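Consider one such protein record:
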Amino acid sequence: MSAHIEETSYETNVDPVPRGPIDVFRDEYGMFSMVAVDQRGSLRHMLSEGRQGAAIADDELSSFKTDLALAIGDQASGLLLDQDYGLEAARNAQCPVILAADILSSSQPGDPMDIAQLDDSVTLETVQAFGAKALKFLLPWQPNRRTEAVELAHAFMERCREFGIPGVLEGVVRPREGHLESAEGFSEALIMAASDLSKVQPDLYKTEVLYGGEQDRALAVATAKSITRELDCPWVVLSSGVSAEEFPEAVLAAVTGGASGFLAGRAVWSRATRAADPGDYLRSHAPKNLQSIAERIRKTEER
């Protein structure tokens, strides 16, 4: 028998039909304007680089995430956290929480993450402790391992259904090499990944955005339209791989093509990792960064 988590009600101004559990993460405009800070090793590395290679203790990672949760308050429509360092942030969150259920690693030391496995230590009790309203799984998709990716995605969604909460499936193309390094090749891979992973019926799909500047806008919109056609669920974009300055326009291109918002990490908080006082930077800048992205979408929606 499946176990179920009690749902929390969040009021919005959005037409409630159709309505599903994932809609708890929509903002008052009906979009997903969420922040991700489930980074673990990469966040430690970023903070260390910002301090000229100094060692970063576990409690500093926890404090960074908590400071961010307090800084953005209820301006975000959702907050993505990890169980390793995110519990205190979850306790201070003023918006619904998504809990990461992935263990990530690299096949080659120092290279980008390209291996993921389902974290069996994320149990129903963990979900309850975090008050999480959804689980998230980051899945590296590779053209030569498509069947394996679908099987892993299926296992994740089965876990979500067992727990009785929505699943956010994040498909990222790894590695980016050969034909996939070109904008056109990357576009094809993003569309193919969405097509493959749609088979497991995620509640929300999260993917990369193709955008390196205005020259990519037309292809970014076309890619987004194709991804929208492949999916039977809403989808959002992540900010990794796009500069903080360009991310609002990248989101706009994706939304123009049918995306329903963003689940952004680095575009909101990465500069804080290089600040003398990360907490102070987050309090001063993270809400503004988040607002600038969300407002760019809203102005388009109002046209």
User: Anything to note?
Assistant: The radius of gyration is 18 Å. The first strand starts at residue 32 and ends at 36. The domain at 21-301 is CATH 3.20.20.70 (TIM Barrel). Confidence is low (pLDDT under 50) at residues 1-18.
